Amino acid sequence: MTQATIQRTAIVPDNLAGQRFDAVVAMLFGEYSRSKLASWIKSGELTLDGRTVRPRDLVRGGESVALSAVETVQTHSEPEAMELEILYEDADILVLNKPAGLVVHPGAGNPRGTLVNALLHHDASLDKLPRAGIVHRLDKDTSGVMVVAKTLPAHTRLIEMLSARDVHRQYLAVVVGAMVSGGTVDAPIDRHPRDRIRQSVRDDGRDAITHYRLRERFRNHTLLECRLETGRTHQIRVHMQHIKHPIIGDPLYSGPLKLPRGATPELIEQLRGFRRQALHAEVLSFAHPISGEPVRCEAPPPADMLKLLSVLRDDTRQHED
C-alpha cells in the first residue's frame, strides 16, 4: 500500500515570539490534534528552521515551521465487503445509515463483520485514521445515522464539535407507558457499580442531558423524539429507564416484559418478538468540519420499528372504537 505524506509549511508570526513551540504549531496547524502534533515534534517530522526541537522550546518569531510526516496505519482491522447505505459523502466525511445488529468496532469475540471492517473495504485510506475515522458510535442494536471522518483534519474537528455539543443528534424511541408531556432528563451517568456491562444514573457520574418530546401517543406506549445534549454510553436507554419509561425490547434496561391489559394478539406477538431496543438515530446535523457548510442527514425508521408502530396504532384504534 502506498504511504501518503503530509507536507505543510508556515512562518511563525512575530506576535507569537516567546511562546512554546507546541503551542505555536497548535495555532498554525489547528486542523490536527495536539497529541498528533506532539508526536510529530518528538519524531522530528515537525521542525523549526530545519531543526528538531523540544515541545517546550520557545520561538523568536519569523522562523520557518515545516511538517513532513508519513501517514502511518492507525487501524489494523481487515477490510470486509459489506453493503453500506451511504447518505452523504465527499472528500472529508461520509454519513451512513447503520442497520440494527451491526457492531461498530471490532473487539473480543467479533474481530470481523463490524462497521470498521466495512469502512476499510469502502475506502482503504481510512486505515490511516483512528478507528477508521469513526468519531462517535451507536450501540449494536441501535440503528440510524452516523458520521465518519475521511481525513485527519476532519477527524480532529468533528471530535472537537462533538465535545463542544455542536452536533445535533436526534433519535426516535418507543417507550413503555402513555406519557403526557415532553421534558428533560438531567441525570449523571457512569458504569453500574455491580454490573460492568450496564450504565446507571449515579451522583458521581458524568453529566448527561437528554431532551425529549412526544411524537405519538399510544394506549400504553409512546413514540418519543429524543435529542442528546451529551453523548454518554447508553444515555437515552439509561435515562428512559430512570424516568420509569424504558425503551421497548431493551435487553439491559427494560426489565421483564409486561403485556398491557387487553392487548391485541398482534401487539402481544410484536412485543414478545421485539428483541432489541426500539431506538433509532433519525437525524444528524452539523457544520461541515472543513467547509463550514450545513450538513443534515436523516434516515427513516427501519422496517421492524415501522411494523411495531403500525401494530401499536392498530391496538390503540381498536380500543378507541
Structure description:
With 321 residues, the protein is α+β, with helices and mostly antiparallel strands. The chain has helices at 21-28, 34-43, 115-122, 152-163, 235-242, 265-273, 303-320, and strands at residues 5-11, 46-48, 64-70, 86-89, 93-98, 143-149, 168-176, 183-186, 189-191, 199-201, 209-217, 221-228, 279-287, 294-298. Strands 4, 5, 6, 7, 8, 11, 12, 13 and 14 form a nine-stranded mixed beta sheet that branches. A three-stranded antiparallel beta sheet has the order 1-3-2. The protein has a two-stranded antiparallel sheet with strand order 9-10. It is elongated and about 80 Å long. It starts with a strand and ends with a helix. The mean pLDDT is 93.
Task: Please give the structural blueprint.
Elements: E1 5-11, H1 21-28, H2 34-43, E2 46-48, E3 64-70, E4 86-89, E5 93-98, H3 115-122, E6 143-149, H4 152-163, E7 168-176, E8 183-186, E9 189-191, E10 199-201, E11 209-217, E12 221-228, H5 235-242, H6 265-273, E13 279-287, E14 294-298, H7 303-320
List keywords for this structure.
elongated, three-stranded antiparallel β-sheet, 321 residues
**Helix content range:** 10-25%
Mean pLDDT: 93
Query: Count of helical segments?
Result: 7
Query: Unreliable segments (pLDDT under 50, ≥5 consecutive)?
Result: none
Shape: elongated
Strand-residue fraction?
25-35%
Q: Name the structural class.
A: alpha+beta
Please provide the count of β strands.
Answer: 14
